[in-house]
Design goal:
Radius of gyration: 64 Å
Function: Potential calcium-dependent cell-adhesion protein. May be involved in the establishment and maintenance of specific neuronal connections in the brain.
GO cellular component, one term: plasma membrane
Mean pLDDT: 87
Distance between the termini: 171 Å
Keywords: Calcium, Cell adhesion, Cell membrane, Glycoprotein, Membrane, Repeat, Signal, Transmembrane, Transmembrane helix
Number of domains: 6
GO biological process, one term: homophilic cell adhesion via plasma membrane adhesion molecules
Domain Cadherin: 6-105, 106-214, 215-321, 322-426, 427-536, 561-648
CATH class of the largest domain: Mainly Beta
Helix content: under 10%
């Protein structure tokens, strides 16, 4: 948007100009909230905006003549920048002229020498007054003090400008009056009008009655703004009808032109050639100079002509890129079309040389769009992804349309800020964990790990157990997980015989807002340890008594006495059982199957004279180390079940063969046999 204000120059500080909030139809409170800024190329800040009310007031009185010099229209350009969102408004202030300058003459007095023989009607150019005001406030008319010999007339040049001339209306008589004191007054059209005076002293001479005359009242020339020193601009020519020194002409710049122009140009006093002297340091397309031709008579006469010089622009200025506003970092979730920066691109050259094309490299997620005059906005053209690219160096290239074109580049660093757009990710959906039973409390089981490509708090992950139950109890009574690194620890000792496997979920959550999460399923398999000895189910004993099995006395070989039945709560090889005879009253009478636990006779029961036997059976698993249990079995030889079972608490073994009685009988038998043998030997000897 654009708004134009008019303000008179020299308006006092604090005077309101308008209400920018109302004029732009925005809330006054939004000015401060949206960080408003006023941007201008002027060296002074002439206006202020009240952030609360939006009232635009004068901050510095404006001197139109100092600011705009001789320009017909004096404009101050401002830009109002608002952020969040970024908006730009153009403000133009038209500075109105007031009659604050009086007409003035470059010199305090002017001297004119006139030969006395001049006839009435002779004309002499008078100095023109300068008034820095414009329009009706500038010089409007001239008046001359009353004198019987002179009157004032206004003349018009070819370009329409006017100048005063002193016209002789009565012949002069130097002997009667050698000098005439005149006062030239210039008045402007202001209200009230202002005026300026200058003394014009006319000296009456007796010579040189013809003034030089230019061929043209206005000369026109065109040069390049980078023309080197010494190049010819134009050549003026004047003639003088007088002879000798009175007809010799000297050319010079009028003392009414500025000192800057006199430094930039030289005029040859004899030839009238105007040449460039140094650098043409001007920004105006047209220059105006008055050239005076004066003869060399004793009382030199002069006339003036105007030289208009058109400065042709050459492409000698590179474009200027100014970053007016830059929003960095940019969130990666910014939608396409988000304004990133506001650029001002200017070229001091006029015309085609000052027209600019602006571009950025292809394959970037940004686009450069023209905004207001000489402004471009840098906007996003597609969605951003910080995880792919965290920042961009954007080179803005501005090229003018001159020949050859001139180029300027400026690089912007746009950083992409992170948003929480990525959930934590585990390397797998499930994981299997194996742990041995009887583990110590606090034992480390496993460490889950998730990754999050976001940065900062958005990528910082914490872990927790999702609520669930295991074997009817809360999961938290079995396990704990480290919040920081996902390490899982056991809070109790697992028992394979009670719980062989279970599963649970660990949740990984980032610290973004809103937080994102993911979960992994952990399957826990408990490994068996040999922590249970075999349990003998049959035969059983009560109160520590011996289990009794009755076997018929006439039982044959391979008779099944009993079968030892045992069980082990462990698993696999820890529950593989084998059976062994640890002790038997007669080891040759019984055998035990190591795999089935069957106790059988090895021969007929008729071969034994003992009625009771006792065996000890060991049941052993295959764990490491192995565990075992024993059972004692009493075997009673009987055809029927006795009413009272014998006591098997003794050894259950048959009495020893070499008791005292047996030894006595053996010794007696040996003695009798020896005596009988000796008697036989003796009888044999006697017989021989």
């Amino acid at each position: 948007g654009q708004v134009v204000y008019s303000i008179a120059e020299e308006t006092e500080r604090g005077v309101p100009v308008g209400n920018i909030a109302k004029d732009l139809q925005i809330e006054a409170a939004a000015l401060s909230a949206r960080n408003f800024r006023m941007i201008t190329t002027s060296s002074k800040q002439y206006f202020n905006i009240n952030a609360s009310t939006g009232v635009l007031t004068v901050n510095e009185p404006i001197d139109r003549e100092q600011l705009c010099e001789l320009k017909s229209a004096c404009l101050l350009n401002y830009e109002l920048v608002l952020e969040n969102p970024l908006e730009l408004y153009r403000m133009k202030f038209k500075v109105l002229d007031i009659n604050d300058n009086s007409p003035g003459f470059p010199l305090g007095e002017y001297h004119i020498k006139m030969p006395e023989f001049l006839s009435p009607g002779a004309r002499f150019t008078l100095p023109s007054a300068q008034d820095l005001d414009e329009g009706t406030n500038s010089v409007q008319n001239y008046t001359l003090s009353t004198d019987e010999h002179f009157h004032l007339e206004m003349q018009t040049r070819g370009d329409g400008s006017t100048y005063p001339e002193l016209v002789l209306k009565k012949a002069l008589d130097r002997e009667q009056q050698a000098t005439h004191q005149l006062v030239l007054t210039a008045k402007d059209g202001g209200e009230p009008p202002k005026s300026g005076n200058v003394s014009v002293i006319v000296t009456v001479l007796d010579t040189n009655d013809n003034a030089p005359e230019f061929e043209h009242s206005v000369y026109r020339a065109r040069i390049l703004e980078n023309s080197p020193s010494g190049i010819l601009v134009a050549q003026v020519h004047a003639t003088d009808l007088d002879e000798g020194r009175n007809g010799e002409i000297t050319y010079s710049f009028s003392n009414t032109i500025s000192a800057d122009l006199q430094r930039m140009f030289l005029i040859h006093p004899r030839t009238g050639e105007v040449t460039v002297n140094g650098v043409l340091a001007v920004q105006r397309p047209f220059l105006e100079m008055l050239i005076e031709a004066k003869d060399n008579g004793a009382f030199g006469m002069s006339s003036t002509a105007k030289l208009l010089v058109e400065i042709t622009d050459v492409n000698n200025h590179s474009p200027e890129i100014t970053i007016t506003s830059l929003s960095s970092p940019v969130p990666e979730d910014a939608i396409p079309g988000t304004v990133i920066a506001l650029l001002s691109v200017l070229d001091k050259d006029p015309g085609e040389n000052g027209k600019i094309t602006c571009e950025i490299p292809d394959k970037l997620p940004f686009q450069l769009k023209p905004s207001l005059e000489n402004y471009y906005t840098l906007v996003t053209s597609e969605f951003l992804d910080r995880e792919l690219t965290s920042g961009y160096n954007i080179t803005v290239t501005a090229t003018d349309l001159g020949s050859p074109p001139m180029t300027t580049q400026k690089t912007l660093w746009v950083q992409i800020s992170d948003v929480n757009d990525n959930s934590p990710v585990f390397s797998a959906d499930t994981v299997d964990v194996f742990v041995e039973e009887n583990n110590p409390l606090g034992a480390f089981l496993y460490q889950v790990s998730a990754s999050d490509p976001d940065m900062g708090e958005n990528g910082r992950i914490s872990y927790k157990l999702r609520n669930s139950t295991v074997a009817g109890s809360a999961l938290a009574s079995f396990l704990s997980v480290s919040l920081a690194n996902g390490s899982i620890y056991a809070k109790c000792a697992f028992d394979f015989e009670q719980l062989r496997s279970f599963y649970f979920q660990v949740e990984a959550k980032d610290n973004g807002s809103p937080a994102l999460s993911a979960a992994i399923t952990v399957n826990v398999y408990i490994s068996d340890q040999n922590d249970n000895a075999p349990a003998i189910l049959y035969p059983t004993s009560q109160n520590g008594s011996v289990a009794v099995e009755v076997v018929p006395r006439l039982a044959d070989e391979d008779y099944l006495v009993t079968k030892v039945v045992a069980d082990d709560e462990d698993n696999a090889e820890n529950a593989w059982l084998s059976y062994h005879l640890a002790h038997a009253s007669d080891s040759t009478l019984f055998r035990l199957s190591p795999h089935t636990g069957e106790l059988r006779t090895t021969r007929s029961m008729r071969s034994t004279s003992f009625l009771k036997h006792k065996v000890v059976v060991v049941v052993q698993d295959h764990g490491d180390p192995p565990l075992s249990s024993t059972v004692t079995v009493g075997i009673l030889l009987a055809d029927t079940l006795p009413q009272v079972l014998p006591d098997f608490d003794d050894s259950g073994e048959p009495p020893p063969l070499l008791n005292a009685t047996n030894i006595y009988l053996i010794v007696s038998l040996a003695c009798v046999s020896f005596i009988f043998t000796m008697l036989l030997i003796l009888l044999a000897i006697l017989r021989l």
